[in-house]
Amino acid sequence: MSGQRPRLSDVAREAGVSLGSASKAINAPAAVREKTRVAVEAAVRKLGYIPDASGRALASRQSRTVGIILPTISNVVYSAFVHALHKVLAGHGYPLFVLAHEYDADLEAAYVRELIGRGVDGLVLIGTDHRAQVHDLLAASATPHIFAWSIDEAPAFNALGISNHRAMEALADYLISLGHRRLSMITGAVMGNERARARVKGLEDAVARHGASLATVLEMPLTIEGGRVGFAEWLARKDGATALVCATDLQAAGALDQARLAGVRVPQDLSVTGFDDIEFAALLSPPLTTIRMPIDQLGHDVGAALVALMQDGAPFASRELHTGLVVRASTAGPVSSPK
Fold first, then answer.
1. Which of the four pLDDT bands, split at 50, 70 and 90, describes residue 53?
2. Which strands make up the sheet holding 182-187, listed edge to edge?
3. Mean pLDDT (whole number) for 277-301
4. pLDDT in tens, 189-237
5. What's the rounded Cα separation, in Å, for the pair 149 and 123?
6. Strands 271-273 and 290-292, how do they pair?
7. How far is CA 168 from CA 24, 131, 203, 205, 322, in A?
8. How far apart are the first and last CA of the chain?
């Protein structure tokens, strides 16, 4: 047996019982005699036997696993979300497979096909904007699934998240209440990302409602470096904006760093905002005004909803979670034009 994985037949032989008794002792120990159970457990320990989960899945038509496909693993909001989700699923005996498509819609569709092919009992997808192929695969396989994070452009059922549009409107209302009449924005790519689209549209709608203006919208990677590059490009345009709205805290962190290097004072010359309220947002210089995402609640509620969906099969009405405006020192009323 050297170099080979022990099989159930090896356990049965070591324990001196039939193959059926060994299987029952492992999968339903209360259904066998104490002597048989003890012998099989001893054989399992001695041989280092690990039950074949794929075999059990074929027999039960359940893999007891869940998959999640993230847009990226480089943003801490997703790791925090996965942590909260994992705790709920693990409590119900569901290990979590985590994949990231890095904003590649074709790769996301391939991952959906792969996970369904592996027999996951449930899937979590981020956002509501996915290729038609993804929706076809979910429908054809009848795989329980939840669209997490956003209810913008969401179907009537099985979506759970925030309204990015309303959150950005609230942020814009606050900036305009401070006296800002000309805003600019650094966002992520809007193609294939309803979260980015809704944040831009929320800002546009709020600005129009107040009779203010949106001077510039720049699409940049949702990273610290994207914020740095976006700020440099915005500054070169000299568009007269007194507030710069960033689509994520990571972009805002990059923008703040680039502002420091360029000699633009925040908030005296320019107010800067983010979105997510990640842990280090309060530690930036100056501390960042942002929108707080209910990450822990989202992870918990998505996990609980998916478990119910996998066990009961009844779809649930899409539901919105609420964000909050967190005001810190990176915003103030406009005093002077940016350099």
1. low
2. 213-219, 182-187, 243-246, 271-273
3. 97
4. 999 999 999 999 999 999 999 999 999 999 999 999 999 999 999 999 9
5. 14
6. unpaired
7. 57, 26, 6, 9, 12
8. 75
DSSP for 145-159, written as a single string: EEEEEE-TT--SBSE
Do the beta carbons of residue 77 and residue 276 sit within 8 Å?
yes
Question: Confidence band (pLDDT; 50, 70, 90) for 1?
Answer: very low
CA distances to 59, 160, 234, 274, 292 from 289, rounded to whole Å, are: 53, 25, 19, 6, 9
Mean pLDDT of the chain, nearest integer: 92
| This prediction's pTM | 0.81
For residue 212, give the nearest of 248, 242, 176 by alpha carbon. 176
HSE-up (13 A, CA, CB side) for residue 35? 2
Strand runs labelled E in 95-199? 96-100, 122-126, 145-150, 159-162, 182-187
Tokens 């919208």 correspond to what residue?
217
Question: What domains appear along the chain, each with residue ranges and CATH number?
Answer: 8-51 (1.10.260.40), 66-162+294-321 (3.40.50.2300), 164-293 (3.40.50.2300)
